[in-house]
Amino acid sequence: MILSGGASSRMGADKGECEWLGSRAVDRVAEVAREVGAASLVTVGPRDYGLPHVVEDPPLSGPVGGVLVGAAFLESAGCARALVLAVDAPTLTAKDLEPLLRSPSPGAAFEGLPFPLVFDIAALPPDAEVGWPMARFADRSGVLRLPCDARAYPRLRGANTPRERDLLLEALAARDRA
Fold this sequence. Notes:
Strand order of the largest sheet: 5-4-1-6-8-7-9
Number of domains: 1
Helix content: 25-40%
């Protein structure tokens, strides 16, 4: 699932629609999900980007609200495990996700980052609520916290401001030239 439900107030524009070297952020994130073998894909948020899509209830209910509705969608599609990506991290790579994808049940996240996150849908806390912080959700789901490679941290954290976007775009352009 790709969480795209934020207001983008710090960015000043819809993060999913932001262009990253000729592609929308949401499309770049979706491509990485497909590259790592996502059997089903869904965007979660108020905007429909032309991909399978669900809206949190209530709208703009925060990341846990998005994860809950996204997990329900994926479970109905026959998925037992979820990969949660943020639309504001379009420079992450399949290699960045490998430690999470290899993690045993119930899943894993990187220390200090709410996303990306991999978890078994069966590990959803039955009392999870939309207002929970992601750290509580991850702890109550029992996911492991893995160390994060310092070089990958900016890609995994993503861009919440135009300045962060500019820095990640510079790094992305350099990576593409290499």
